[in-house]
Amino acid sequence: MANQQDPPSHGINDLTKQAQVVVVMVPLPAQGHLNQLLQLSRLILSHNIPVHYVGATTHNRQAKQRVHGWDPNAAANIHFHDIEIPPFHCPPPDPKAKIKFPSHLQPVFNASSQLTEPVSMLLRALSCKARKVIVIHDSLMGSVIEEARFLSNAESYTFHSVSAFAISLYEWEQEGKLIEENELFPRDTPSLEGCFTDEFADFVDCHYSKYQKFNTGCVYNTCKLVESAYLDFLEKETIKEGIKHWALGPFNPVTIPERSESSKKQHFCLEWLDKQAKNTVIYVSFGTTTTFDDEQIKELAIGLRESKKKFIWVLRDGDKGDVFNGEERRAELPKGYENSVDGIGLVVRDWAPQLEILAHPATGGFMSHCGWNSCMESISMGVPIAAWPMHSDQPRNTVLITEVLKIGIVVKDWAQRDEIVTSKIVGSAVNRLMASTEGDEMRKRAAEMGESVRGSVAEGGVSRMEMESFIAHITR
Ligand SMILES: *[C@@H]1O[C@H](CO)[C@@H](O)[C@H](O)[C@H]1NC(C)=O
């Protein structure tokens, strides 16, 4: 079972033709984006196509160090291009910021323009050697890969790091239309107010739309079984431009290698989960761009304890632009808290093996910010979500999870985003998800969806077929 997580390798016959095609991945330097393109690299490598993963040295290191479920250092045919960029400002997140968007990352987003020249050089070099150069770039890195337009044997594809739901809604609104005018979108889907800083909205304006027209197609970390209505919508929207769309997700592995065979030491929280009964633990984590202030941390801490449910809580600040640059704030818990939840809850301060935790039978719920990586990981492992959105696409992903897919409940109502979530709200949300008939029904639905999504990447499944169609297209 050692390699059960690896997609099967393809025959030697494909090899000669495909060896002349190379793929270049250009992610945006933020964890959720770095990770998804690294995971997609793994899927493409399994088709014997060499992958070049390009980023600043520190971001490549971050992506490799944090990946779950496989070892990129051991994967043949993946070439990491570690680019040294000039130092950029790297402030810590502000726990008190009113808008929760990680505005402290703006300097690193801006610094990604430093990659343009090295990426252009790489593309030119590859263009001379390969029959075809396929660039898959983050939707916000269009300017960095502009060179691809001028190379006759290069093609570029936009990777959307968010849900097809969020993208189709964005496209709809770009046409000046209202949410209520399209029955695909629930009427109470929130506007983007409070989701971004103005500075980031400008960054999106500068780096997204005008580069789309040079693209051959779009790839998504989603699955037709989950978002077919929105994928169909996107397909229709761009039929005139001839832009193609491929739903290649989930990118993350859908099975976890046998533990004894994994070389890494077992994380203590997995050993703890082994001792818990099925579906009794709620996993609480808010991703890599959430930073709570002390008051919110206290309410969450007390709420979890008072829920009387078992929990694993990953308590860390949001990432800085360079995660290896200096110490992180150690958020304060109420005095004696960890002792008071001994045997009931675990507080994890370091990087947690999220995918393994979600895949564990003892995990029965996920309290999440609803970043798209977390949503896809939870969906593919069949775990229902208690949604606590913070910024960006997360409030809208919350609508997708709770209203469209009906595999989750709302903890934090986005309309009340400026208010603290009290311990009472936390406690009752945990109980609603973990100990009610409604919660059990969601868990059942999530488990069924997880099973079909895992099946979709197996032989004959829809995501596998999408991947085969994408590979056939890029190697044509
Ligand atoms: C990022 O770049 C924009 C556009 O050049 C500039 O206006 C802004 O001040 C920069 N922000 C930071 C934090 O460097």
List the helices and strands and how they pair.
Layout: H1 12-18, E1 21-26, H2 31-45, E2 51-56, H3 57-66, E3 78-83, H4 106-111, H5 116-129, E4 132-138, E5 154-160, H6 164-174, H7 198-207, H8 209-212, E6 217-220, H9 224-237, E7 244-247, H10 268-274, E8 281-285, H11 294-307, E9 310-314, H12 337-340, E10 345-348, H13 354-359, E11 363-368, H14 372-381, E12 385-387, H15 394-404, E13 408-410, H16 423-434, H17 437-456, H18 462-474
Parallel strand pairs: 1-2, 1-4, 2-3, 4-5, 5-6, 6-7, 8-9, 8-11, 9-10, 11-12, 12-13
Bound molecules: 2-acetamido-2-deoxy-beta-D-glucopyranose.
| Contiguous helical run count | 18
Rg is 22 Å
Ligand identities: 2-acetamido-2-deoxy-beta-D-glucopyranose
- Largest sheet: spatial strand order: 3-2-1-4-5-6-7
Which architecture of the largest domain does the CATH hierarchy give at level 2?
Answer: 3-Layer(aba) Sandwich
Instruction: Count structural domains.
Output: 2
Strand coverage percent: 5-15%
Domain Glycosyltransferase N-terminal: 20-253
Protein name: Glycosyltransferase
Keywords: Glycosyltransferase, Transferase
GO molecular function: anthocyanidin 3-O-glucosyltransferase activity; UDP-glucosyltransferase activity; zeatin O-beta-D-xylosyltransferase activity
